[in-house]
Write a structure and sequence with these properties.
The complex is a heterodimer.
Chain A lengths: L1 H24 L4 H8 L8 H20 L21 H17 L3 H9 L3 H24 L1
Helix pairs in contact in A: 5-6
Chain B lengths: L8 H22 L5 H10 L2 H24 L11 H17 L4 H10 L3 H24 L1
Helix pairs in contact in B: 2-3, 5-6
Classes of the chains: A mainly alpha, B mainly alpha.
């Protein structure tokens, strides 16, 4: 019980930090995201730096963890084990890219925006949650 | 052509480092991948302790703008899409990210930094489609 409490407290702090990072980076501003995706127009390369910053720090953490027997809060490291390039991966990523390109919102920034009370964020998140459920239903049918 | 007027290298890089730090913490402390779509989707369907930490993470994300507001005014947010388009895009993003096992965070940040080929394919796919979509919407239609 106590351990679960620590895990949740740590997850809460991580979610909070993640959201602050998104806000700082400009990811929560759809206009900025679309400016990055618009490579044929006036291109704003800022978000490439968000990726670079995020990947460098995460890479260090993943590398360090390979020498650790378990996580600092004594859980096992949940390494993703899927490696196959499957049809759901490609179709899903394509549909995700389409939705992302249409309005400039992906799941993290959408949750931050919805949390701020912005009606645009709330609408997006409600339909995103429906999308999650639909995908689970489709996945269950397929397998 | 590069949009130097809107290019914000410092805040973008700092924001990215904070995102990376949050990702690193969740991995080193909890042993979990900071993939937002996976965490948010399973926060609704899993039970017990598996659900508890995910709800806590999503709560942190949702409350982040309020914590930001205690320190500074919120950065500019410009949404030009109408409600119908937001709903359609939300549905596509939710369905696609879940079917494709991840989004910008799970594949883009975590997957690429783990050097996962599968995540690289996913990231190149959604980046290309998103850029193609913006191209069509802004320059073709």
């Amino acid at each position: 019980m106590r351990k679960n409490w620590f895990l949740s407290a740590s997850a809460f702090i991580c979610g909070l930090l993640f959201g602050l990072g998104l806000l700082m980076a400009g990811m929560a501003n759809p206009a900025k995201v679309l400016g990055f995706l618009d490579i044929a127009g006036l291109w704003d390369p800022s978000l490439a730096l968000v990726m670079v910053g995020g990947i460098v720090v995460a890479f260090i953490a993943f590398t360090i963890s390979k020498k650790m027997p378990q996580s600092l809060l004594q859980t096992k490291f949940n390494w993703p084990d899927a490696t196959a390039i499957t049809r759901p991966l490609l179709i899903g990523s394509t549909l995700f890219g389409l939705g992302w390109g249409l309005v400039g919102l992906c799941p993290g920034p959408a949750l931050v925006l919805a949390g701020s009370g912005a009606i645009e964020g709330l609408i997006f998140v409600v339909f995103m949650l429906i999308g999650f459920r639909l995908a689970d239903v489709v996945q269950a049918r397929l397998s | 052509m590069i949009d130097w007027m809107h290019f914000t290298p410092q805040s973008a890089l700092s924001g990215g480092l904070i995102i990376g730090f949050a990702t690193a913490l969740l991995w080193l402390l909890n042993g979990r991948i900071a993939g937002i779509s996976g965490i948010a989707a399973a926060a609704l369907t899993s039970v017990g302790a598996e659900r508890q930490w995910r709800l806590a993470f999503v709560l942190g994300l949702v409350l982040s703008s309020w914590v930001w507001l205690m320190l500074a005014p919120l950065p500019e947010v410009v949404v030009t899409s109408n409600y119908q388009l937001l709903a359609l895009a939300g549905l596509l993003v939710g369905f696609g990210a879940r079917l494709g096992s991840g989004c910008t965070s799970g594949h883009g940040i975590c997957g690429l930094s783990r050097l996962s080929g599968r995540s690289l394919v996913a990231t190149v796919t959604f980046m290309t489609v998103a850029m193609g979509t913006v191209f069509v919407v802004r320059h073709v239609v």
